[in-house]
Amino acid sequence: MSSHDTTPTGGETYASAGVDLDAADDVVERIKPHVARTTRPGVLDTIGGFGGLFELDTERYRKPVIVTATDGVGTKLAIARQLGRHDTVGIDLVAMVVDDIVVSGAEPQVFLDYVAIGKLDPDVVTELVAGIAEGCVRAGCALVGGETAEHPGVMPATDYDLAGFAVGMVEKDAILGPHRVSDGDVLIGMAASGLHSNGYSLARRLVEGLDLSEHHGLDRPLGDALLEPTAIYTKPCLALAEAGLVNALCHVTGGGLPGNLPRVLPESLGADVDTSSWTPGPLFELMGRLGQVEREEMFRVFNMGVGMVAVVPEHAVEAAVGLLSEHDVEAWVMGRVTGPAGVRLS
Questions:
Q1: Which SS3 state, helix, strand or coil, does residue 124 take?
Q2: 275-278-279-284 Cα dihedral, nearest 10 degrees
Q3: Closest residue by Cα to residue 186 from 272, 287, 267
Q4: 155 in helix, strand or coil?
Q5: Considering only CA atoms, which of 26, 244, 246, 238 is closest in space to residue 141?
Q6: Residues with pLDDT less than 70, the chain
Q7: Does the first or last residue of the chain, that is N or C, have fewer Cβ atoms within 10 Å of its Cβ?
Q8: How far apart are CA 138 and CA 329, in angstroms?
Q9: In what order do the strands lie in the sheet containing 342-345?
Q10: Which residues are bridge partners to 171 per DSSP?
């Protein structure tokens, strides 16, 4: 045999090291229909290339500004793995990224995902990507690429993690933020669908040992409530921006209202929040009761029923609430911008 002969001789292979290339090829074929659902004007290529191609609409944007964001789902994934349900956390992944992008008034254009998994299970990965695709459809952005990485010997076989990255676009003079906010502006809350994707390290500790198939005083099994996907506010928020009804938007994520509202207010101004203007919902009440969690801590860890806040001029309140209602978003006046700095919960 020639010293240059590369014919396999029964030695080690990638498969024997724990990486299944055939399963990876299978996944690519399975996810193509899901990816196809997310296509939108500007997409120039289909999945399978080395990079996703997207053409900027230069007729629409005079001075385009790119807005980027990246995020993950966090320990909510542990609940999905525990229940063997992987079709919703992909929606969470998209939501956590695009809801950050839209606060600038930007429209998400493209999304990419990264799936790290101990042992590639085509059924699980297909469910995950189907959820990601559904999230992209809800957000109006295209899933133009991604990566699935098998990590044998590093992650347990059934373990996985998700990360996402998106690019949005906004006209430079249309960027929302603290520079537009004035003393006297009104805070409009938008209802959260549940815990969204924050606070799950505490939530998992609180429900440890409970049967997630039982209701525990809720209107559905606890597991279903914990896996409720994060709301995607992109389209209603863009509608507010396009109508000129909003000065700033606040995505309520880790840190809750006290940690996030200051990010969209001028340094000299704060917010008075009337917490009696809404009811957080039974899941939040259950979390607080299970761990005897103090009210201040609840508001720092969880969104407490408010997933997004619009900061609007007083004259635009009625129109803004009405427009959100047209987009099936429950919205209400929850407070006001005023000095001094800080978030005051009454």
A1: helix
A2: -60
A3: 272
A4: strand
A5: 238
A6: 1-10, 13-14, 16, 21-22, 46-48
A7: N
A8: 14
A9: 248-251, 306-312, 186-191, 331-338, 270-273, 342-345
A10: 64
Instruction: Please report, as a single letter, which amino acid is at residue 128.
Output: L
Strand partners, 188: 310, 333
DSSP 19-49: --HHHHHHHHHHHHHHHHTT--TTB---TTS
**pLDDT for the residue 2:** 41
**Residue 93 to residue 71: CA distance in whole angstroms:** 7
DSSP string covering 59-118, please?
Answer: TT-SSEEEEEEEEE-TTHHHHHHHHT--SSHHHHHHHHHHHHHHTTTPEEEEEEEEEEES
In this structure, which amino acid lies at residue 174?
A
State the pLDDT at residue 298: 97
For the chain, how long is the longest CA-to-CA vector? 85
Domains assigned to the chain: 21-172 (3.30.1330.10), 178-345 (3.90.650.10)
Q: What is the pLDDT of residue 40?
A: 83
Q: What backbone torsions phi and psi does residue 81 show, to the nearest 5 degrees?
A: -65, -40
pTM given for the model? 0.91
The token pair at 231 is: 């709301």
Quickly list DSSP for 254-321: TTHHHHHGGGGS-TT-EEEE-GGGS---HHHHHHHHHHT--HHHHHHHS-TTEEEEEEE-GGGHHHHH
Give residue 334's pLDDT: 98
Could you give phi then psi for residue 80, rounded to 5 degrees?
-60, -45
In this prediction, residue 1 carries a pLDDT of 36
pLDDT of residue 31: 73
Q: What is the DSSP letter of 251?
A: E
Sort 256 into a burial class: Cβ within 10 Å, 0-12 / 13-18 / 19+: buried
pLDDT of residue 36: 78
